[in-house]
Sequence to fold (210 residues):
Amino acid sequence: MQEKTKKIIEILAEKYPNPKSELNFENPFQLLVSVILSAQCTDKRVNQVTPMLFAKAPTPEALADLPVEELEKIIFSCGFYHAKAKHLKDMAAELVARFGGQVPSDIESLRTLPGVGRKTANVVYAVGFGGQAIAVDTHVFRVSNRLGLTHAKDVLNTEKQLMEEIDRDMWADCHHYILLHGRYTCKSARPDCADCRLTEYCDYFNQAKK
Fold:
């Protein structure tokens, strides 16, 4: 890794010594459902919704059988509830039909599930199964490009550039470091540069100063 990258990771590791997902879940199935619900929605809101959902549908079989109208009522506050309900029911049915009701532990199989894109598959693989992957959401995309770790116009190239820049055994932790920094410090509209220890290494900050 470049020295700048090493310093950024070192500082973020000190700030977030035990990086982990802020979604509440007890198994890979619950994690997968939660990540699908988290699209365009906060983890806090998802965590408010999932206890009722998992009480009604604790397994893929139960979720596949849950009437769509009831599912939509439960997840309504997560936004895009029509599309998310369809994705969840189709995903659960596929888990039952193709994987014996078990969430597959490899990225390639995860990506074949309805409603599971590259980011979701990477999160479930890394968080649910301890794999090494970098999931790029809006926070990771924004912060990586602001810092100059990447110079990409889309999430796919951001992911590829981060994978090239960061040592593989640190991918999962670095995903959380960058995400949490974006969520709490390097916010979209008003980045808190005054309370950021990365300004020395940040392209965005140093360009703004000029």
User: Anything to note?
Assistant: The mean pLDDT is 97. Residues 81-99 form the longest helix (19 residues). The CA atoms of residues 70 and 85 lie 9 Å apart. The two ends are 27 Å apart (CA to CA).
